[in-house]
Amino acid sequence: MSDAISTYNATLDPQRAAICDRLRTLIDAALPQATSKIWHAIPVWWVGENVVVGYTERKTGVVLMFWNGQRFDEPELEASGSFHMAQIAYEDAAKIDEQKVSRWLAKAGTNIWDFASERRAFAARRKAKAVKAPKARAKTKAKAKTKAKTKAKAVKRPKAKRRAKAK
User: Fold this and answer.
1) What does the angle CA 121 – CA 126 – CA 128 come to, to the nearest 5 degrees?
2) Rounded CA gap, 101 and 61, in Å?
3) Close Cβ partners of 155 (under 8 Å, ≥ 6 residues apart)
4) pLDDT tens for residues 128-147?
5) Contact 56, 42 (CB under 8 A)
6) Which of 45, 48, 89 minimizes the C-alpha distance to 67?
7) What DSSP character marks residue 64?
8) Which one has a higher pLDDT value, 109 or 167?
9) CB neighbours of residue 112 within 10 Å
10) 97 vs 130, which has greater pLDDT?
11) Which fold has domain 3-113?
12) Residue-wise pLDDT tens digits, 8-42
């Protein structure tokens, strides 16, 4: 058990700390191959390079989050965020249905969203775009300079010549 997660749980009020302690026990038992740590200020569990489950304190209670939870086909888990995350909130440790949580955790350990590969692919696309961008910017700057010169010439022409040209 990670000391950072114990510290996180200890900072909560007793009711929420009890929920977090119970969830942590269930997660550690169901995912012995997972590594746990504090990530973005919340406790999470990783299988390989991919985050699979975590929890956080919110106004509604303690929220148990599954990073690929929308793929579990579990009606109690509600979709959250723009990726595959699904979650459930708990206000009392006694309301945690251990059988359901164990089933969800079993799915979390095998039905893993390949977050690490998607993150690398996104970074590669962004890098490729950045390499192409300077050329595009140079063309844009050249066009802007040409337009500025054209406007400057139009402004320098005397009014009489403009009127004559307009007729």
Assistant:
1) 95
2) 16
3) none
4) 777 776 555 556 666 666 66
5) yes
6) 45
7) E
8) 109
9) 19
10) 97
11) Aspartate Aminotransferase, domain 1 (3.90.1150)
12) 999 999 999 999 999 999 999 999 999 999 999 99
C-alpha–C-alpha distance, residues 119 and 103, integer Å: 28
Sign of the dihedral defined by the CA atoms of residues 137, 142, 148, 151, in that order: negative
Strand partners, 36: 45
Rounded to two decimals, the pTM is 0.68
Alpha carbons 22 and 95: distance in angstroms, whole number: 11
Domain layout of the chain by residue ranges: 3-113, 118-166
Letter for the amino acid at 117? S
Residue 43: other Cβ atoms inside 10 A: 23
Cβ of 150: how many Cβ atoms within 10 Å?
A: 10
What letter represents residue 40's amino acid? H
